[in-house]
Amino acid sequence: MTxxxxxxxxxxxxxxxxxxxxxxxxxxxxxxxTLTVAGGCFWCVxxxxxxxxxxxxxxxxxxxxxxxxxxxxxxxxxxxxxxxAVQIRFxxxxxxxxxxxxxxxxxxxxTDDGGQFCDRGxxxxxxxxxxxxxxxxxxxxxxxxxxxxxGQQVVTPVLPTSPFYPAEAYHQDFYKSDSIxxxxxxxxxxxxxxxxxxxxCKRDQRVRALWGDAAAFAGS
Length: 220
Hints:
By secondary structure, the protein is an alpha+beta fold. It contains 7 helices and 10 strands. It has a domain at 33-172: Peptide Methionine Sulfoxide Reductase, Chain A. The strands form 3 sheets. A 6-stranded mixed beta sheet has the order 7-6-1-3-2-8. A two-stranded antiparallel ribbon has the order 4-5. 31% of the residues are buried.
């Protein structure tokens, strides 16, 4: 009888410990958050941030304009007011918003207000989109730090969040797709076409020239 009571007591204690552990784990589990940025070609921004530990996924799309559900052709035509943007979903327990903002600013040319690299026009400008006053302050602090580090004026604005429209399926995960597309150089895998575009646009070369050892993603 004594042994049976001892066993029951031990089982009850074990259940309590397991319950407390599960409760603690649940209370510390962070809900995924999103960060929306515009950094020129969304293929490149998506490819860069999907390499970051703690990033769950990144979606290419459009935001900041006045047209609902715009097409890529409409946006790049310059009549919708939208930016090419990427919505980054991340686990804040693994990577902070501040870290992602620092990486973003060091992966683009934030001194260029006419586009990014070989892509020119309003839809290719840089921007950070903030949903709350706290997010706005954090973004502005990241910009101020980048400006001090760079020693040049940063023109990347912090804008209020507006509806985000995913781009056509054709554009998602372009950088790693083995689908064949027809280019001016003949049929190529999307992944190969992406690399050729990034090299020709000299994105990484400009980021390295601007940021030096602080450049993010360049050549990765």
